[in-house]
Write a structure and sequence with these properties.
With 587 residues, the protein is an alpha+beta fold. It contains 21 helices and 23 strands. Helix 4 packs parallel to helix 6.
Length: 587
């Protein structure tokens, strides 16, 4: 496919904030793509060339792009930097430069989506002497043949600054419209921005089936290939693959054990709710791979876990679901999540971190065994398989601690034990429940003793004053709207953050957030939603000061949640639920 077609779609998406219109535009585009192009086109549509779990990086910064623009436009780098300072967007600079291009281009080729995709992926493969010049060459090759519009979006893709509003949900709905819209008699009125859905139940069924396929594969490109090739049959044939990330099953929170029994039934499996980070352990053709709940690969950061799994878990080609917690090397006490959060992102001095913060893997579920999915097996049988596979090592590798009971007093005693051990609470699970990736369906719930913390997105900040002048300080917090399409402000936070010490500090947050600044007004900046922080607070109050309708009283930062993505942030419904629970408690 010509890249010009995709660039035009980018431009149209960029010109509207209406989700239905975006869905309409993408669905029309998807009908035009060929099966063999699906994978790379969907990647480019999402503004990337590598999936989230791939550790490959383009390794390109603004300086390299400026040099590539200089090479392709004939303008000096200094002049390009001047234009960047004025426009604030290298994509717009590229578009402007190519409109008044001074250099005569010989042998100009028509860009295809495959050519752009291959050149950009090739950036990650370059290493050794002359790497920078080679990267400039690959980017310049594209820009030399690009139209002004194409150049704008090539540059934004390289710098990972697309911002065209293509979420997973929008893409899923676009697939429903593109490939099943005729069967559903969907009618979209562009002028009124109104969608007519005559057969809502069938629409929801297609949406659920597509969501299931995505939760199993995390790959819309593969899903489109299957649909184009085999239609609905292809969609329903999609299964999980060992070695490829799977969206984990999620659990709702209930206010007490009695409500937990009402939800999951009796007898129930009750397990510790560990205060660590979720990890999927894949063993594939002899190799051990670790993915976080956010689908990021953290294999290199945890060589100690890899060694434990290799030596003490039987079986080939499997996927285990578990929780990693830290162990104090001196006291042997279990540590809170904050203690191991640094290990998740650590790329250097791994051996030092292994000694400083040893960890333990607690396995509580299994998704695949011997290359076959076991998600439809009851939890009781999946647990038997886990126990069969694992050779337990105290405080290093164990099946999750659990009991099976119908008795409230026994459950309460176990709950107290879990808290005394340093856990967040307990999990209560249906013994016959299946494993449903990505879904909160009532097969399990969590019970915690206090108002739960909120995982919120940083969407704004202010530059500090005095000795904090070089740091971002006061941070605007947002939750997701009910439909998970918007970010709604709920307060600001500046406490719980240290200056440069261990734990959450201003220096670290500034480094994470500064590349995400989208606009500035005086000391205030708007931040592209990406970084999640765990927030504790004294109370949730109704408030007209923030777009959520609520405000947090005395919020403080507990952790930076490197293991979560923006889609994992708490929603307005979560906030309302906690608000109501809190009101009931106060009464």
């Amino acid at each position: 496919m010509d890249y010009a077609v995709l660039a035009e779609l980018y431009e149209n998406l960029n010109s509207t904030t209406k989700r239905l219109e975006k869905t309409y535009l993408i669905s029309n585009f998807l009908r035009r793509i060929h099966r063999t192009d699906a994978e790379h086109i969907v990647s480019l549509l999402e503004g990337r060339v590598f999936p989230a779990w791939d550790e490959s990086k383009l390794g390109v910064n603004a300086k390299i792009v400026i040099k590539a623009l200089a090479s392709s436009s004939g303008l000096e780098s200094e002049k390009i930097e001047e234009r960047l300072n004025k426009l604030g967007d290298l994509g717009l600079v590229a578009e402007e430069l190519l409109k008044v291009k001074t250099q005569i281009t010989l042998g100009k080729i028509k860009l295809t989506t495959k050519k752009v995709y291959d050149n950009l992926r090739g950036l990650a493969d370059l290493e050794g002497q002359g790497t920078v010049n080679k990267k400039i060459g690959l980017i310049s090759e594209l820009l030399t043949s690009a139209t002004p519009l194409e150049a704008k979006y090539i540059v934004r893709t390289v710098l990972e600054e697309m911002r065209i509003g293509v979420s997973e949900g929008t893409l899923r709905d676009s697939l429903v419209w593109a490939y099943f819209g005729d069967k559903l008699n969907l009618k979209y009125d562009v002028k009124k921005n109104n969608l007519d859905v005559p057969e809502r139940e069938k629409y929801d069924d297609y949406s659920e089936r597509l969501q299931r396929a995505y939760d199993l594969t995390s790959d819309y490109g593969l899903i489109i290939e299957k649909i184009i090739e085999e239609g609905e049959k292809g969609l329903d044939k999609i299964e999980l693959v060992v070695g490829k990330p799977v969206n984990v099953m999620l659990y709702q929170k209930v206010k007490n054990i009695e409500e937990g029994f009402e939800t999951v039934g009796k007898p129930a499996i009750i397990e510790y709710k560990y205060d660590g980070f979720r990890v999927l352990v894949h063993k594939f053709n002899g190799e051990i791979i670790l993915y976080t709940r956010r689908l990021e690969k953290v294999t290199k950061q945890f060589p100690d876990i890899i060694e434990l799994v290799k030596e003490n878990i039987k079986g080939d080609n499997y996927i285990l679901d578990g929780e990693v917690i830290g162990i104090d090397p001196v006291t042997k006490k279990w540590l809170p999540f904050q203690a191991i959060s640094q290990r998740i992102k650590r790329k250097y001095d791994i051996e030092e971190m292994v000694k400083k913060v040893p960890v333990m893997l607690n396995v509580f579920d299994i998704i695949a065994y011997d290359d076959k999915s076991v998600i439809n097996e009851p939890l009781s049988k999946r647990r038997e398989l886990i126990v069969h596979m694992i050779k337990p090592i105290h405080d290093r590798l164990e099946p999750a601690k659990q009991i099976i009971t119908s008795d409230l007093e026994t459950a309460e005693k176990f709950y107290k034990e879990a808290l005394e051990k340093g856990n967040e609470g307990i999990m209560m699970k249906n013994m016959e429940g299946i494993y449903k990736p990505g879904s909160r369906v009532g097969f399990g719930v969590k019970v915690k003793p206090i108002l739960e913390t909120l995982d919120l997105v940083i969407t704004g900040a202010e530059w500090g004053e005095g000795k904090r002048t070089s740091w971002l300080s006061s941070f605007e917090l947002s939750c997701l709207s009910k439909n998970k399409k918007e970010f709604l402000t709920i307060g600001k936070v500046g406490t719980g953050i240290k200056e440069k010490d261990e734990g959450v500090n201003f220096e670290e947050l500034t480094k994470l957030l500064q590349p995400l600044i989208e606009e500035a007004k005086g000391q205030e900046v708007k931040i592209r939603p990406k970084i999640i922080v765990e927030i504790a607070y004294e109370e949730i109050q109704a408030s007209n000061n923030y777009s959520s309708g609520f405000a947090l009283r005395f919020p403080r930062v507990l952790n930076i949640r490197y293991d979560l993505g923006t889609k994992d942030a708490k929603t307005l419904d979560d906030v309302k639920r906690i608000y109501e629970l809190q009101r009931g408690r106060n009464k």
